[in-house]
Amino acid sequence: MLQLPHQPLQVAAVPTQRTPAREDEAGPWHSEAVCRRDEAGLFFAPSKEPTAARLSREESAKRVCARCPVMIECREHALVQPEPYGVWGGLTAAERRVVLARRRRREMELKAAASADHIAAAG
After folding, report:
1. Quick one: how far is CA 76 from the chain centroid?
2. What CA dihedral angle connects 42, 44, 46 and 49, to 10 degrees?
3. Using CA atoms, how far apart are residues 46 and 14, in angstroms rounded to an integer?
4. What is each CA distance from 26 to 31, 66, 77, 83, in whole angstroms?
5. Which of 74, 86, 111, 119 could form a disulfide with 44 if both were Cys (CB 3.0 to 4.6 A apart)?
6. Does residue 68 or residue 116 have the better pLDDT?
7. CA–CA separation, 92 vs 51, rounded Å?
8. Who wins on pLDDT, 114 or 23?
């Protein structure tokens, strides 16, 4: 893509639809997402974005997420997929990796505890 001199940052490719259509009784959850009315660039990083600009953009995106009626559904979608880029459900990609790591660790602890209980009961 050609970059004009007055445009120092190149925007990364952004999906046209932030979420796949997932139907439930009320219709697709993402149809109620507040971010559908905002610029997608707020939620996805331009390439070579300076750290201060990234942090500011992410905080702005999180403020949009904070007022969203489907924030939890969006967050769970991003954790289940998992979505590798952008702000989803009020979490950045790095924050989602932390949540996923904690969930995996907790699942392993629960399995280990259940295994220990099973052994103790048998023994």
Report:
1. 8
2. 80
3. 9
4. 10, 21, 17, 24
5. 86
6. 68
7. 14
8. 114
Element spanning 76, H or E: helix 71-80
**53-88 residue pLDDT tens:** 999 999 999 999 999 999 999 999 999 988 899 999
Tell how far CA 22 is from the center of its chain: 16
Q: How many CB atoms lie within 10 A of CB 30?
A: 18
Average pLDDT, the chain: 79
Closest CA relative to residue 88, chosen from 11, 14, 23: 14
Q: What is the pLDDT of residue 82?
A: 81
| Backbone CA torsion sign across 64, 13, 80, 59 | negative
Distance CA(36)–CA(68), nearest Å, equals: 10
Calpha distance 42→90 (Å, rounded): 12
